[in-house]
C-alpha cells in the first residue's frame, strides 16, 4: 500500500464549505476509484479550521490517478481559494497497518 496524509487549514468562516468539498471527494472516491483502499477525513476537535485526510492506495500509480483525477481536482477548484496556505502532505509506502 501507498499512503498520503494531508493537513489542510480552511480560512476562518469557510470551514463548512471546505468540509462539504472534502465529503464530495469521498463520494467520488467511493464511486470511481477502486484502487483507493481508504479515504478518511478528520476535522480537528481543537480547531475546526484544520482538516486531515488519511488516504491509502494500492500503489503510487493509484495515488497519482487520485491526485490528478476529477475528485481531487474538483476539490481544489472549488475550495482552493478557501484554504489558508498550502496543504502539508506526507506520502510514502505503508510501513504498518492493522
Overall description:
The chain has helices spanning 15-32, 60-68, 70-79, and strands at 2-9, 36-43, 50-57, 88-93. The chain is α+β, with helices and mostly antiparallel strands. It has a single domain (2-91), classed as Alpha-Beta Plaits. It has a four-stranded antiparallel β-sheet. α1 (15-32) packs antiparallel against α3. The longest helix is centred in the first third of the chain and has 18 residues, at 15-32. It is globular, with a radius of gyration of 13 Å. This is Quinol monooxygenase.
Q: What are the defining features of this structure?
A:
Alpha-Beta Plaits; four-stranded antiparallel beta sheet; monooxygenase activity; 3 helices; Dimeric_a/b-barrel; 4 strands; 98 residues; alpha+beta; Quinol monooxygenase
Topology:
Layout: E1 2-9, H1 15-32, E2 36-43, E3 50-57, H2 60-68, H3 70-79, E4 88-93
Antiparallel strand pairs: 1-3, 1-4, 2-3
Organism: Seohaeicola saemankumensis
Pfam family, one: ABM
GO molecular function, one term: monooxygenase activity
DSSP E strands, number:
4
- The backbone outline, from C-alpha atoms, is globular
From the 3D coordinates, which CATH architecture would you assign?
2-Layer Sandwich
Mean pLDDT: 97
Number of helices: 3
Alpha carbon gap, first and last residue: 12 Å
- Give the strand line-up of the largest sheet: 2-3-1-4
- For the record, the CATH class is Alpha Beta
Helix content: 25-40%
Low-confidence stretches: none
Main sheet properties: 4 strands, antiparallel
Calculate Rg over CA atoms: 13 Å
Amino acid at each position: 500500500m501507498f499512503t498520503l496524509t494531508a493537513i489542510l487549514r480552511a480560512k476562518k468562516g469557510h470551514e463548512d464549505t471546505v468540509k462539504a468539498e472534502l465529503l464530495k471527494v469521498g463520494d467520488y472516491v467511493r464511486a470511481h476509484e477502486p484502487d483507493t483502499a481508504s479515504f478518511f477525513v478528520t476535522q480537528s476537535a481543537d480547531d475546526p479550521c484544520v482538516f486531515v485526510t488519511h488516504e491509502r492506495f494500492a500503489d503510487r500509480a493509484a495515488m497519482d490517478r487520485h491526485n490528478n483525477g476529477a475528485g481531487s481536482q474538483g476539490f481544489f477548484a472549488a475550495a482552493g481559494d478557501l484554504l489558508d496556505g498550502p496543504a502539508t502532505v506526507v506520502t510514502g509506502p505503508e510501513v504498518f497497518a492493522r
